[in-house]
Amino acid sequence: MDAAAARKTILIVDDDTKNRSYLETVLEAEGYATLEAASGEAAMDLVSRRKPDLILLDAMMPGLDGFQVAARLKAAAETKAIPIIMVTSLDDRGSRLKALRSGVEEFLTKPVDRSELWVRVRNLLRLKEYGDFLSAYSRTLERQVEHRTQQLLESHFDTIFTIVRAAEFRDEETGAHVKRIAVYCKELSQFLGMDPEFTDTIYYASPLHDVGKIGIPDNILLKPAKHTPEEWEIMKTHAVLGAKILGAGTSPSPFTRMGAEIALNHHERWDGSGYPGGLAGEAIPLAARIMGICDVYDALRSTRPYKPSFPHERAMSIITEGDGRTVPGHFDPEILDAFAKISGRFAEIYSSLSD
After folding, report:
1. Tens-place pLDDT, residues 5-29
2. End-to-end CA distance of the chain, in Å?
């Protein structure tokens, strides 16, 4: 008896009791476990509950015949890998082609020869075992890749916050601000229907939006009063500086490339009144348009040397209705509409990630 065979289960499907009994006797003598089904319908039900390692399937049966059973099993993801040997008295070319089209791997002609049965069963089970090994190995590799990818993403995020903390020492914005920005951008992107790759990338890229403030002189960056026109022009250069620090979109990292795109363009406005390029409408990269409204919301909610913290309702009123300085026309209308619809989620994020 083959020790490996004892672990394999073979389903015998035949409407003839004598045929099932014969096949059962032959297979069990070789150490295989067997299951039996007297019809195609019974076979489908049994396979849904217990997955055999191989199926011996009679071609001609009342109700669901062997061709139909094979086609259904091969069409289902959970059963398509089960090898099928069709047992048939039909030996014409048309029947064999029909069986192949339904997905069977092998044929046995009635009356079944014992030696031929053993060889066909053994070979198909070996192939299935190898296929199962490859599938398991592939799943293991996928899990390892996912784990390593997650480690790299976490390392990337740590690097981002290291860079951002360098800017924080020179600015009033805090770690909580950049964490909120990341979550805002991801939530809004998901609501807009962006794919997972985009939403994950903007989550890791958006905290870099103001990294260019590292290059702004302290007397301007930290000034509590209103900037002079000359100081404001210097302050606005942080957008270009940020893009340069991040490689101006030339980095091999998708997170840093999007970070540079956001850093350069997140102060552009839909109506063309923003900076540094005066871009308008869809000329502004999507990630920057999303970032822009998230940044304005968080700035309104946060305390600054030159302004108090506004409650959620006041921030929403300013963004959706305007206050003279900020107007709805600054934002992509579709993004503004989505933002308004999930504004409650923004309030929750601000509360949960407060300083």
Report:
1. 447 899 999 998 999 999 999 888 8
2. 71
Domain membership of residue 245 (yes or no) is yes
26: Cα within 13 Å, side-chain hemisphere:
19
Q: How far apart are CA 241 and CA 264, in angstroms?
A: 8
Amino acid identity, position 190: Q
Token pair 């990294």 in the structure block, residue:
211
Whether 4 has a pLDDT exceeding 60, the answer reads no
Do 120 and 186 have their domain in common? no
| Better-scored residue on pLDDT, 3 or 19 | 19
Same structural domain for residues 102 and 192? no
User: Do 122 and 186 share a domain, yes or no?
Assistant: no
Containing structural domain, residue 59: 5-139
> What's the whole-number average pLDDT of the chain?
86
Task: For residue 329, give every residue at least 6 positions away whose Cβ sits within 8 Å of its Cβ, in sequence order, or none.
Answer: 269, 270, 271
Answer whether residue 275 shows pLDDT above 90.
yes
Rounded CA gap, 87 and 60, in Å? Answer: 9
Q: Is residue 39 part of a domain?
A: yes
| 8 A C-beta contact, residue 174 and residue 168 | yes
DSSP characters over 12-78: EE-S-HHHHHHHHHHHHHTT-EEEEESSHHHHHHHHHHS--SEEEEES--SSS-HHHHHHHHHHSTT
Domain presence at residue 157: no
Q: What number is the average pLDDT over the span 169-191?
A: 81
Residues 99 and 214 in one domain: no
Strand partners, 88: 109
